[in-house]
Amino acid sequence: MSGDHVKTILHDSSADDGSEPWNLTTKDGLDLAAGVYFYHVDAGASGEFTGKFAVIK
After folding, report:
1. How many CB atoms are closer than 10 A to CB 7?
2. What is the pLDDT of residue 56?
3. Cα-atom radius of gyration of the chain, to the nearest Å?
4. What is the pLDDT of residue 1?
5. Would you say 27 and 4 are in contact if contact means Cβ atoms under 8 Å apart?
6. Which of 8, 2, 46 has the alpha carbon at shortest distance from 26?
7. Burial 13-52 (b: 16+ CB within 10 A, else e)
């Protein structure tokens, strides 16, 4: 848990479509390593959300 920024993913669809594809690469084009990652979502007027997810390879 180094706190390094991995990637920014922008989502510009309607509120009905809450998914966004991601090929699990970093902003530098490297494959994402196995581990626990924290995320931050800025949903504008709906608020901000944080959480975590695990990548298992």
Report:
1. 13
2. 95
3. 13
4. 65
5. no
6. 8
7. eeeeeeeeeeeeeeeeeeeeeeeeeeeeeeeeeeeeeeee
CA-based nearest residue to 39, from 15, 55, 28: 55
Helix, strand, or coil here: 44?
A: helix
Residue-wise pLDDT for 13-47, tens only, equals 776 787 889 999 999 999 999 999 999 999 888 89
Number of domains in the chain: 1
47: left (phi over 0), alpha (psi -120 to 50) or beta: left
Q: 32: which 2 tokens?
A: 């994402």
Quick one: tokens of 12?
A: 């510009």
- Is residue 9 scored above 80 in pLDDT? yes
Supply the range of the domain harboring residue 46: 1-57
